[in-house]
């Protein structure tokens, strides 16, 4: 056939030129025409493909046969030039079209044809270099798009063909480059990778990889990528270690680092690091890395790269390798079980508590011997890390010793206030002593003889109460006198007077006589004084009666020691006192102390934390969500790595230890002092790492070996203006809101004395990341090789020698609740409000669980009014089943205060409902500083299906009360359990819906014809309109299997309450509405509790419209609720919102960690709702499951 027969462009009318050429080529294939014609046609097609994007599109368009024609020609032609032309065309098509065109070529069978062509070409002698270059180039591009490519290549024998080509042509860079690219693709298959390794590919690549050179940088980069892929195989990694290649890689990396001054070869440097990353996935590789001084090398080079932002990939990869190679350490604890033990009345037969009791005492439960022998590949480690932790929600800890704290005056108010127990002997020769007002002084071994005498005090009793609150002392109080017996003077009482909320001076008054040396290790330091006691404090009278209770250290700066007249001392107090205008109406320091005496704790707390004594009022300023500085996490990780590199700089001194009651508190003045021996406190051990850096370890829940999240502890002995770093090193969750703007809380005693008694968000350089402390399989639910996580934050204190408290969230103790309930009871109007406080039951440790009933008194004794009173619908509320979710108590406080207020709306609400409220379902857990469990070591919100009256009394009796109400035809209209959520923002609800659950789980959801009243959505929708912190789009109404034993689901399913909810409040802040960008505070939480009440009144009006004569437009309100934005694209397709967006800087650099954040979030979704499933709902609930 002559060239004249080729169809010209002008002769084409309906088809483009390329279509004609392809048609001509197809005809040539069928007629076995002359090879020169085929060569000519393919060259024309190549020219068009190189010059016109339109041509490339047409050839790969849907329905086009162009690709089949080319592949058929390639398979059948014997002409070399035609083959090269077609290969060039395919390269053009794939190179310009990205992944879609490569996939198109694979779908047409291109992989097999090209591999066969490679086999045929390899048999020719001599081999055509151009042909080999083209075949390898195109295979390297389409191989990643073919899932079976590795198997096809191995079956066809292509592996050795490519490998031999490289071996024989090491100096021919043009041919070696595509061959290496194809080897990289082969290596994606693990079997291929091992096979290539056996044939010497690793050794071969190290002949190509070398020190810095300006030549052949492209080849070097490809060789490194190939090596990194090959070394993911454990077999190849061991081979590399055996041949000393770890040291070689480090040497090469340092060479490139030193010579690449303009950073033009960053990809090569990263390639070397990727190879190191792969080889250190095995234990031998990590050991070789350490032995080759790899930690120091990568640390130094990465620090030098910090100044150049474009080198961040090198810094991040180096950080990942160093963290992975950091030797796993055990937590410095004798056991991971709680420091405190409570003997259960009944031992469960199965479950984690039963396992805990059956564990032999000689077993080391802190770390497994095999934990550091994990030969896991990265993939296996990721798989493990992405699984849910045994129970993803952590618990708080309680750390409190039985030793009283010292009371010292050295020109400052300092020390605890002790109250003797009933069994204590009255001290020595007292003057006229008032009954019960005796303090026993523990003798200081360092004191002189005078200090060793017992002391007691005579207090003139004065009733200065007004409506249950201590009133301020007037100048006339100065005339009241008493006598001081052998050591305790009136200054103690004045100190107490100063710290009542109604009398907050800006500084402590002078007039104190120092007596006794500061010694925090001593129970009490005695004060000597012979002066009269002219100034009395009402709270002092209460404090010095009953069981021993003492306040923590009280430090005031700038207080001078003077022996001036007492009248001057008193007047200075009066002048300095500040009235707190917005003080908490329910707080009474005296009453709090009285209640604490009757609170039972496992460690038998003898101290009261000042924040709980002073009380908390919301600060008069907003606290925005903290913006995370770029690179903060890797900076912290680098500082951790410095511990290994510069071990001589590490102090490693224990400064607080609950497990060792004999530990001595260091005497040095620049060491911080720690304490958590008070109600709800949680701190187990503190180790000083550097001068101003401390590692903190939290205590497990009692009768448990995990749940580390809640913390509440005291710090003193600080210097102002110094940045102190605190690392809480035994957290278990894989992520936290500390990575997304949440700050811990701090309370300063100095600030409280200066009329600022509030918790504030503090801390900079906050992040949450995986550390090098290994968790035993006992602690990780049977999984091995898991690590703990660190919360780290840095704080600078404003005052010298202050006493500050830190907490995970705003503390709310059991004693605080009892105080608030007593204040509410004493302040209400019994003619208008029916308020009754009963005891639901006693807890395991003997504390009472309060049950509150609130409604309006009947208008009169008329029959109609009594009937209306008795027939009001019930609302049942509960909170604080998880002790660490203190925000739930603040929301409940808002609810209780609103219900007891004189607000007309509140009166209408009381007239509409009878409220049954259990404000604290887990008193024991709260008292003892647990995070999630009760003293039974179990999550009480997983016990509702079959509560044990001996182990879960509060759940047993709460459920019994609900069953009783249902039996007497008073089924509650609404049940709501208040909770806190650690991983999500805003306030939202979980409800129960059969239909939404079926739609969410069933493959045949579209045909689901379940009929269901949609009233369960009404209350959340109302709240989304009236409560600024509430977010409807975060609500979910799916009932998951793992949540079947929670209060919400059991009350819905067994009791029959349709509107059964869990209301989750964020621990962090809001990302929508009025409070967007702000961290949540107690004001907002209490507001949410009040708004919940308003929502209930609106619910009443919506469900009883005729009674309220509402306009007809509002009657359709509930129907409108169902028409809210639904991200449900189909009944079975739910769009799950991510818990949080990713950072530009990766949240976790550890290769062993969950790099796939999305998966992890989906699996660990709800931290706190009573069940692990609600947590999953956390995401699914956030999934905007609204129904049409």
Automatic annotation (TrEMBL):
Span list, region Disordered: 364-390, 464-485, 561-580, 1149-1188
Protein name according to UniProt: Cytosolic carboxypeptidase 1
InterPro entries named among the record's database cross-references: ARM-like, ARM-type_fold, CBPC1/4, Cytosolic_carboxypeptidase, Pepdidase_M14_N, Peptidase_M14
Record's catalysed reaction(s): (L-glutamyl)(n+1)-gamma-L-glutamyl-L-glutamyl-[protein] + H2O = (L-glutamyl)(n)-gamma-L-glutamyl-L-glutamyl-[protein] + L-glutamate; C-terminal L-alpha-aminoacyl-L-glutamyl-L-glutamyl-[tubulin] + H2O = C-terminal L-alpha-aminoacyl-L-glutamyl-[tubulin] + L-glutamate
Residue ranges, compositional bias (Polar residues): 469-485
Record's subcellular location: Cytoplasm, Cytosol; Mitochondrion; Nucleus
Known function: Metallocarboxypeptidase that mediates protein deglutamylation of tubulin and non-tubulin target proteins. Catalyzes the removal of polyglutamate side chains present on the gamma-carboxyl group of glutamate residues within the C-terminal tail of alpha- and beta-tubulin. Specifically cleaves tubulin long-side-chains, while it is not able to remove the branching point glutamate. Also catalyzes the removal of polyglutamate residues from the carboxy-terminus of alpha-tubulin as well as non-tubulin proteins such as MYLK.
Pfam families, per database record: Pepdidase_M14_N, Peptidase_M14, TPR_CCP1_N
Cofactor: Zn(2+)
Active site per database record: 1064 (proton donor/acceptor)
Family stated for the protein in its record: Belongs to the peptidase M14 family.
